[in-house]
Amino acid sequence: MQRKLPRLFSLLFFIAVTGHSLASDRSDSSATSKPYDRSLILSVEYSSDKVFYGRRTSERILYIIPSLFYQGKSGFYTGFSSCRLIKPEKYWDQSQLMVGWDFSLAKKIETSVSYSRFAYNDSSLQIQSSLKNNVELSFSLDSALIQPRLTGGLYFGAAAPDFLCAFELSHEFSFEYLFGDRDGLYIRPTAALSAGSLHYYRLALRDSGQRFLAAREVTKFKISGIDFSLPVEYDIGRFIIGVSANYNIPLNQPLYLKAQPAFYFTAGIGFRFI
């Protein structure tokens, strides 16, 4: 059981960030009431490992995530995704339904609020599977130099609720109309610091001694990790292609989770119907 515990974490942060970024609007955000692009995007993403709010697994996992994402002009968005594990096991592990709203809180502050509902396979190894709900709120500052972003998520379900947050700094380099009037290249180096509590670890531990250690170790709010990423996105016509090189440094790990700092990468392709 101890080998299996740290294999998988929640897919929410990855899906919410990468899936939402595929559909995000790149127009001027200076207006208080911002019009958003209406879009419907079908995408498939792949990752060579998993990081959840700064914490990664002790052994590498591979998975693919097909998803469907809709963004309305009002800022409303919704999406559905499902996770297919391909290593160390092969099965459909988790599904997620998300609804949310983007809006401008002030002239330079963009805000997003969302709710997600999860469904898990009965044999899921994901240690957070007792927490089937998440409410997330994020704030980002529209700046020409460095764009700060603060994200907070409240996870709740059968276990005690957990609050997790991340603060990131990024800058986007845009190169539009490279080979025609319908393409663009976007590079966004990002550094993020994550923190949170992890009560749900206890429900994954069958050994009473381990549960006691987990209760003492992970219920407190702590810094959980540092992440560096270099995502590159190329848009051409209705197609969106993205790859990202990532490096994770886990911090304040439980005694039984001995993950080391590591590189991993993600890749995805999407098609915009509208």
Topology:
Layout (H helix, E strand, L loop, with lengths): L11 H11 L16 E9 L3 E2 L2 E2 L5 E10 L4 E12 L3 E14 L4 E12 L12 E9 L5 E10 L5 E9 L2 E4 L6 E5 L2 E7 L11 H11 L3 E15 L2 E12 L11 E11 L2
Write a compact overview of the structure shown:
The chain has helices at residues 12-22, 208-218, and strands at 39-47, 51-52, 55-56, 62-71, 76-87, 91-104, 109-120, 133-141, 147-156, 162-170, 173-176, 183-187, 190-196, 222-236, 239-250, 262-272. The protein has 274 residues and is mainly beta.
Descriptive overview:
The chain has 274 residues and is mainly β. The protein has helices at 12-22, 208-218, and strands spanning 39-47, 51-52, 55-56, 62-71, 76-87, 91-104, 109-120, 133-141, 147-156, 162-170, 173-176, 183-187, 190-196, 222-236, 239-250, 262-272. Residues 1-33 have low confidence and may be disordered. It is built from two helices and 16 strands. It starts with 11 loop residues before the first helix and ends with a strand. The longest helix has 11 residues, at 12-22.
Index terms:
disordered N terminus; single chain; 274 residues; mainly beta; 12-stranded antiparallel beta barrel
* Beta-strand segment tally: 16
Cα end-to-end separation: 46 Å
* SSE arrangement, N to C: HEEEEEEEEEEEEEHEEE
Amount of beta strand: over 45%
Task: Return the average pLDDT rounded to an integer.
Answer: 80
Range of helix content: under 10%
Low-confidence stretches: 1-33
Rg, please?
19 Å
In this structure, how is the largest beta sheet organized?
Answer: 12 strands, antiparallel, barrel
| Overall morphology | globular
The computed structural class is mainly beta
Main-sheet strand order equals: 1-4-5-6-7-8-9-10-13-14-15-16
How many helices? The count is: 2
